[in-house]
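User: I'm writing a tutorial on reading structure tokens. Could you give me a worked example: one chain, its sequence, then its tokens, then a sentence or two explaining what the tokens reveal?
Assistant: Sure. Here is the example chain.
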Amino acid sequence: MRLHGLDIARFVAFVGMVLVNFRLAAEVADDGSFAAFFIDLIEGRASALFVLLAGIGFSLGKPDIIVTYKRAAFLFVIGMIDMTIFSADILHFYAMYFLVGVFAMRFEIKGLIYTGIGIIFLWFLMLVYIDYDLGWDWDALTYTDFWTPFGFIRNSLYNGWHPVAPWAAFFVFGMALGRLNLSGRTTQRRMAIGGGLLALVFYTLSWMGQSAIAELAEIFTLHSIPPGPIYVLYSTCTAMSAIGIILMLTPTLTRLKITLWLAAPGRQTLTLYVAHILLGMGTLEALGLLDGSLTNPEILQISLAFCLLSILYARLWSLFAKRGPLEWIMRRISG
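And here are its predicted structure tokens:
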């Protein structure tokens, strides 16, 4: 049985990514507004939720290995095309997370947790031996040697926007969650409450660590760049809690007759993700608004308007087709 709550959670993650990516593309500076605070709050968390949900879906779907390779190749190609437009694309990284998923799919829950922790530790070792700033022009937020072999490998595995180490840990932790009885109310409550309490613990640890050991701030930061161990664990817990809460609220949303409206875009996140780059950012560029002239409240309004249009489109599309356009193409190619 399909869990509509997971589809709704995917849409929630998508909304967060639209907010963050539109602000990034429009080069909007922090203006101290509530909108800026809100987008700062979800920055790095929405994409972590997105990847965690992908891991859950991977576990629930139990895909054939060859099919997984084909889907990974499809996502990689689409993602690399996106990279020519928006350098913070996540899709080509997804292809690599899938490959990690193939490696870890034979593990039980404990093995998946240990694998996720191992990926986080691998990133820490890289940080010790490799300069995190290599390849970055932080003023322009561009990766200067991305299109070279060594630059691409470094970016993909270590210091890109969503590198395999440590971002694949979100995917693997999601795979572990996918092994649970997510339709059970007890599991949902434990995810909601346990995830929230653990997030509070890691938040406190981050605050204490940065206050006491300034030299190790990168390890204790809750920012996604660099994605230190505490950030990954904290964001995993916030994502787990959010999923639990959404799953618990789904019956109420169903009684309010809005579940299908919120779940429909969650089933087309691949199509909508590409659309928010091509159509959303493309429109902003055509209007000359990617020059830093927008404010955070304006970005918030534009992003929410785009997401409302996404709901309308996805719900209407779902009346005629089970999958979104890109989802259908991927299925046709991969099987």
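What the tokens reveal: The chain has 15 helices and two strands. The chain has one domain: 4-177+229-334.
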